[in-house]
Every structure is written in C-alpha cells, then in structure tokens.
Amino acid sequence: MFQVEMDNGIVKITVSRPYGNLRGIKYHGVENLLDDDLDRDDRGYWDCSWEDVNGSNGKQSMILGDRFQVIMRTNNQVEVSFKTTWKSSDPLPALNVDKRYVMLSGSSGFYTYAIYERLKGWPGMFLWETRIVFKLSQKWFQYMAISDTRQKIMPTSADRERGQSLAYPEAVLLKNPMNSELEGEVDDKYQYSSESKNDRVHGWISLNSGIGFWIITPSNEFRTAGPLKQDLTGHVGPTCLSMFMSAHYTGVPLNATFENGEPWKKVFGPVFIHLNSVSDKTKATSLWGDAKQQTWKEIISWPYSFPHSPDFLKSDQRGSVIGQLSVQDQYLKVGNGPARFAHVGLAAPGDARSWEFQTKGYQFWTRTDEHGNFFIKAVLPGAYNLHAWVPGVMGNYMYEATVTVTPGSVTKLPPFVFKPPRDGPTLWEIGIPNRHAAEFYVPNVTKNINKLYLEQDKFRQYGLWDRYAELYPENDLVFTVGTSDYAKDWFFAHVLRSLPDGKFKATTWQIVFDLPKVDKAGTYKLRLELAAAHLAEVQVRVNRRDAIRPDFTTGLTGRDDAIARHGIHGVHRSFTAALPGSLFVNGRNTIFLHQPRNQHAFQGVMYDYIRLEGPPQSTH
Question: Where in this chain does the record put each Rhamnogalacturonan lyase domain (predicted)?
C-alpha cells in the first residue's frame, strides 16, 4: 500500500493511498501523535454505519478510497482527494464519497471534508451514522477537554479492561487504575457528550510533551438535527471524534432513509484539526485557551475560501436572512414583546418540529438579540422554513411561507409574531419551558461516581435511575402546587422503581392542587412538554387513580435513551390533554401521571414543563 505525505514545515501528515486513512501526524518533535500500536489504517479514518432497505448487509464500514488525485498544489496550499466509487457488486453503502485533506502554508494543523453522493437509480439504504475517528497515542495523550469546566485526566484502555462492567458495556467501574486518583470512578463515553451548539472545539492534551490535539468545527450547518442535537466527543482510547450524523439521544427517527432511486449530495465539513504546544509542560492545560482562540478564528473565516471542490460554496455563492421575532400570549401580562435571545433557524421545508429529525440537508441557526432581531448569514441557496423557539416560552414557531435564498442575496423577512400554544389562563405550572429538565431535582450519587460531575452537570452521573427508589422507598412522588418546589421536590426523570429481584415497578406521580370554583361545562387543558422519552408512556388520570381507562395517554413514545446515556434531554415532544370540567371538584384535586412501561430500567420520561390551563375566558 502506497502513502501520501503532506508537510508544511509545522505539521506533517501521512495518508494511505488510495484508501485515504491517516497513518501518522508528526508535530513538534513527536514522530506520530496517532497510535502506532494499531494497524496503520485503523488510526484515523472516516466511517459510516448503514443498512440496505432489505435489512441485510447492515454494518459499520470504513470509507476507503479507490482513487487518489492531487487537486491543488501551490506554495500556499495542497489539497488531495481520495474517492470512493460505489459498484453494485460491492457489499458497501450505495454512496460515492470524495474525501479531501487540505494543508495551508503556516497553518498548525490540517483540514478535512468529504462530499457524499448518491446517484439517481441507486438502491435505497439507511444511513445511521457518519463521523471521523482519530485514535491518538496512549503514550502521549492523557487529558481530555470538552469545555471550560469539563476537563480531566482520563483512564487508559487497560484500566477499562481491568474494570467492572456495569449495566451496559459502555459503563465500567475502574478498579486498580494506573492513576490511583481514578480508583472507584465510573468511565462511560456518554458522560462526555455535548450539544452541537456547544461543541465547537474539543480534544486531548499530552501532559508529558505539552502538545494539544483539537477538532474544531467552525459551522454546524452540516450536522444533523439542529443545535440541540447531542453526540459523542471523545472517550478512552484516547479517541477523538467528529460526529456529523447519528441516532444518539434521538433513536430510529434520525436515521437518514433513502428510497430506491433517490439521489442525494451533501458536504460534511471542513473541520480543522488544530495542533498546538507549550514549552512549559507544567502549563499544558493552558493549550485549551489557545484552542478556543483558534476556534473563533475559524468561525470568523467561515465559509472558507480555500476548499477546491465546487460543491463547497463560498461566501459570494451564499445568501443571508434578516428579521425580527416577537411573542404575543394573550393571557400573559408580563413576557410579551421582543423574543429575546430566541433560537432561530432555517431548515428544509416540513412541520414545526421537523428540524429535530432532518438528516439529509443543511441547517442554519442563530440567536436573536434583546430586541428580537436576527441575522442568519452564509446560507446555502435553496428553499427553507424558518423555525424558532424562545427560552421560557412553550412551543415551536414556524413561518409557514417558504424562505428562498439565492446567491449574494439579503432576504429581509417581515416581522414575525409567535403566538404560543394557549387555550386558557394558567392555573399552575411546573418547571420552565426550556426543552430540558435541568431545573428539576438531580440528586447526588452515593456510589459509582465521576468526580468531574460532583458540583456541575450532576445529571451526567451514572446510576441516577436507581436513586429514585432510594429517595422514595415506599410511595411515589407527590407534588403539591403552592407548597412544593420543583427544584427540590420534582425528580428530574420519571423512572421506574427498581425492585430487589431485579424487576421494575411502574410508578405513579401525583400533582395535588386546589381549584376554588370548577367550570363543570368547560374544558381544561393539561400541557405536557417532554424533554426526553424512552419506550415510555404517560397516562393521565384526574382524581381517579385506579380508573381502568386513563383520561389521556401519550401512547408509547420515544427512543432517546437519555436516561441511560446521562442526557438531560433527548428529542422534545409536546402533548395536550383536553380534560372535561366534570373530572374536577371544587377544592382539592389530584392529577395522576402513570408511566406503565416497565420492561427495563431505562424506560421513562423527563418532563420539560407541565401547565394546567382553565377554560377560555370571554374577556380574552
């Protein structure tokens, strides 16, 4: 097997030819930052997980090129291509892939991107996941950094092998690790997941050589499912990941489904692999700060001007969209007006929630300012719907008209007014409509800890699903409106009760509240906003706990797996229960929330927000 070397005097990379897999990265006197103990083509690569429409041949496949080409070679830039051409006789996904590596003069790193393409007439398939994997040298890298507060020395692969397996293979209790300070901790790659909007840079630091390895993602336009999509960043190996598409925290709905004959093309990346160093090794962790500065430089430079593929559109080939969003809730005296710091985005046409499930196209998101103004720049030409949600306001907004973006255009949209779902006045509410469950009570763990999360992001600790039965050993949760505090008295996840025999018991939560005067002829609305759900169901009963038929049910919903994977949300879901006034009584009432699905420990829901509305008032 031949290989290609790219060297700008700062960084040298070695890539197999024609496969296009990274074999070596030389930097700052270290011959190879990748793991030399692995097979040469198993150190840095693009791959995908897929299945054909018949449910056969599904597997994880490296994307291996079969043709190499030098695209551009000047004193300032080198760009090379490794193309994969699909043949009907191949037991591989029906995709053509053009992997590119770009190195610029004076740059401490290199760029990589790929063009995925399906031609008309090709057989259908499911694409579950695609990513770039970097397996770094265990000799050099020990310290992983994801954010300002999520950084730590990590265990080794050998530590995991010596550890005790827990409820699923990804979670291991460390025993006798090489670093004794990690003794008794849990290691689980899902504890290091991040939302797309927060994951612009992550990587590893070599404490003994003062070198940093970073994946910088300058734009999220090519990632799937919008800014709240959670995914893996890195894990023991040491492994560093650039995830473009996966079903993590979403489940089957996020698989990209291609029908027989359906054509498709998408550019993933470029992402920048940034390498940095510090002469004083005792200050190696300061490399995180340098990586953040480099990240802002990359973001400001987007869209890049240097990629040579005509499929990557430059700044003058894109357009911009500007507008203003306000909120109008007829039953609120405070909170109407400009939609401050709302999330606003463009996605392929669909319904008001479709952006959370889109996998094939591009999305472009921004935040409004304090006056509700927004500016979405560098948008690829095409037809879009505009979506928005506002922190603290329930519901999803979608501008029904198609927004058409053309090259070089600035599309000024009319002022939008978001009228959130509302049928009557608020009688009571629990939580904050913010699409996650972090404001609720997350307990401390009593065993199997990860020290990184003792004071922050406690929901990332392993085994919190078992804490519910410890905190409520006899009776399930009861929340009394006006007395209870959801930050202390509402467990963050409606989970099952673990029993001594290894089985799980369904749980029923109660919301107790007073209604001084019931409108028997009216209809009350119970709004259930779910931050996550996994093979679960919420049944609602009013004042009749043992009624055979619930007054409302969500039905079986969700495959987020957020409970097991330490998320504080998965895919957001909204339900509205129309409850006849005849179900209520003057005085004390109780709403029972029953989760009956109890096959395994991780079935359950996380509530985002619950609100009871009274019947409409004529004055409104």
Answer: 340-413, 426-612
